[in-house]
Amino acid sequence: MALDQSALLNLLGDLKLTDVTDRIRVATETLYQELIDAEASAFIGAAPFERSGDRTTYRNGTRPRTLSTTAGDLDLKIPKLRAGSFFPALLERRRRVDQALFAVVMEAYVHGVSTRKVDDLVKALGADTGISKSEVSRICAGLD
Question: Is-contact 58 82, C-beta < 8 A?
């Protein structure tokens, strides 16, 4: 579902009101949301409020998802379905730690750092929740 001209003008007006550093985040968030909505429409077989014989199910609200990017945290809305499930191919399922952080955890594991110290290290790198010992084991399972 593409943005129509009035929606683009509204977006441009909103971008003008934001500071320069936030413009990239807002534009990226809008792009991601449009791509997610387009994929959901293709998956369902109809756009929102569209009647179609090809429709496989109906939308049933959205669930929030925060995506951390270099442009900033993007607040996205993932469509829920009445029957079945949908998750956009653009995002990764259950991704809680960035790939760079995975590398740090694996490096610490290889050097014999204890899980408690790995948890402290992850917290120091900015992940407020830290990391559990089972999560460290799951990340490092590919090393064995």
Answer: yes
Range of the domain at 68: 5-81
> Do 46 and 104 share a domain, yes or no?
no
Number of domains observed in the structure of the chain: 2
Rounded to a whole number of angstroms, the distance between the first and last alpha carbons of the chain is 45
61 backbone φψ class: left, alpha, beta (φ>0; ψ -120 to 50): left
User: Is 55 in a helix, a strand, or coil?
Assistant: coil
Q: Is residue 43 scored above 60 in pLDDT?
A: yes
Q: Return the exposure string of 67-82: e unless at least 16 CB atoms fall within 10 Å of the residue's CB, then b.
A: beeebeebebebbebe
- Residue 142: DSSP 8-state: G
pLDDT, one tens digit per residue, over 67-91 is: 877 777 889 999 999 998 888 888 8
Distance CA 5, CA 11 (A): 10
